[in-house]
Write a structure and sequence with these properties.
This protein has eleven helices and no strands. The chain is mostly helical and about 190 residues long. The protein folds into two domains: about 45 residues; about 140 residues. The longest helix has about 30 residues. The N and C termini lie far apart (about 45 Å).
């Protein structure tokens, strides 16, 4: 008998504890999400020119500065929607403060699901790939925000099929998440 059949045949009084648990879990999720949003609204400000450090010293950082500098979280999300692969590449070259700010914007974009269905595998792959790459190559840049990114990483890894991300093409997101957790355990 399937779980839905059990629920359909169960008397309402037997389902009340289940609904209570689900309600508590939903309330906790909302509380955590609201606290995360408030934290970023209060703490994270749009990076200024000083935050961009020596952005004009190389072509890649100059380009990322030209695309992102002065942009709000919402404006950055619009840019991710246009070309997530290019926008992800530009994040790679940012100094610490802009990277952290726009990586949170990237996370918000992934969570918003405001992208074309055809882009879903690239969105998921770019996000999980960049987090893992930064943790391996520049952990000091991503560590301050890693706990903000981890729930999104876990969701992507547990729901790879939802993103239509073929394992043969994009790799196994669960394995990538395990690699990330292993690295975090060493840091």
């Amino acid at each position: 008998m399937t779980a839905s059949a059990v629920i359909e045949n169960a008397p309402i009084k037997d389902l009340i504890p289940l609904f209570s648990i689900l309600n508590q879990a939903w309330a906790f999720f909302l509380e955590v999400r609201i606290l995360s949003i408030v934290k970023h609204m209060v703490i994270m400000k749009i990076p200024n020119e000083k935050d961009w450090e020596n952005w004009n010293l190389n072509e890649d950082t100059r380009y990322s500065h030209g695309r992102f500098a002065g942009k709000s979280n919402e404006e950055a999300q619009s840019y991710f929607k246009l070309n997530v692969i290019e926008a992800t590449d530009e994040l790679r070259w940012m100094p610490k403060v802009p990277f952290q700010y726009y990586m949170i914007a990237f996370k918000d974009f992934v969570e918003s699901k405001q992208y074309d269905e055809d882009d879903a595998p690239n969105v998921a792959s770019c996000f999980i790939g960049l987090v893992l790459e930064k943790l391996e190559s520049s952990s000091e840049v991503i560590e301050p925000i890693i706990h903000d990114l981890l729930p999104t990483m876990e969701y992507i890894a547990m729901n790879q099929a939802e993103y239509d991300a073929d394992i043969e093409i994009y790799g196994n997101f669960q394995i990538k998440l395990n690699q990330l957790k292993e690295i975090l355990g060493k840091v």
